[in-house]
Amino acid sequence: MLSKRSQYAFKALTYLAEKYNAGPVLISEIAKKKKIPLKFLENILLQLKKEGYLDSKKGKGGGYFLIQNPKKVKIAPIIRIVNGPISMLSCVSLYFYKKCKDCDGQNCGLKEMMTEVRDASLKILEHRTLQDLIV
Amino acid sequence: MLSKRSQYAFKALTYLAEKYNAGPVLISEIAKKKKIPLKFLENILLQLKKEGYLDSKKGKGGGYFLIQNPKKVKIAPIIRIVNGPISMLSCVSLYFYKKCKDCDGQNCGLKEMMTEVRDASLKILEHRTLQDLIV
DNA sequence: TTTTCAGTCTACTGGTTTGGTAGGGTGAAT
DNA sequence: ATTCACCCTACCAAACCAGTAGACTGAAAA
Asked: How many domains does chain B have?
């Protein structure tokens, strides 16, 4: 399941996508409109800035804004950043891979199945963008 | 991600699937062969028994065993029992549905996307069985 | 009928993650 | 110099996770 943090992140990003190229948006505006705790949101946006999705301006007329066109921003990497692995097993994860110790033998039925599930999910999440979140 | 508990559950179930119709299997045997902490495994198997997947016999010659043919036991419901929802959002979950409060409006881009992801995953997990975990 | 075997049950614990809150710091604009 | 608005560090309670301890029950065999 996506954490609350992740859901807030997507709400905020969707809001910023709607306001793309319309200048900086206040954290407080996003917080109010999307009903997200202000300080929590600050923290989330800061992370998204550090990861290269957002930029910000301080002082009067400041705020946050998307760096890239929302049509170009894929969903999957955002999930990885705010929520962690997309796979159901780390031994199957592309970006958070960890060998599962005590996994008897090289072939594991669960692993195969979870690889399929991962690919099915990625097929969707790697192709959809922030633009698709705007309704 | 599947919790350790879930992974242990699948290891144990796979082991029991291999020994289907071969009489009760000791918890201690499963624990040893699959390298699962004994008391933790006890707890997991007990839950699977209560949920109707396993039965057990006490005393000498006792142990756990699958009630149904592993070919008939689907993966998805097991995940729901030991790990929780399969969906990435509760407002999209079939078995753990919860309305997301403050989800502005009835249509939500994230929700649509996560419904697709859920369906893609279920297409796999609702059709595969314990039998498929045996390699 | 006592012992042994093996699953059942309750409770606890230490560590990590989640979902926040508090408050001061920094830097740009007026 | 003040105000505005993001930046940063630290802290906190509750929930969850992984596992442990130990006593109890019920079946089978000696």
From this structure: 2
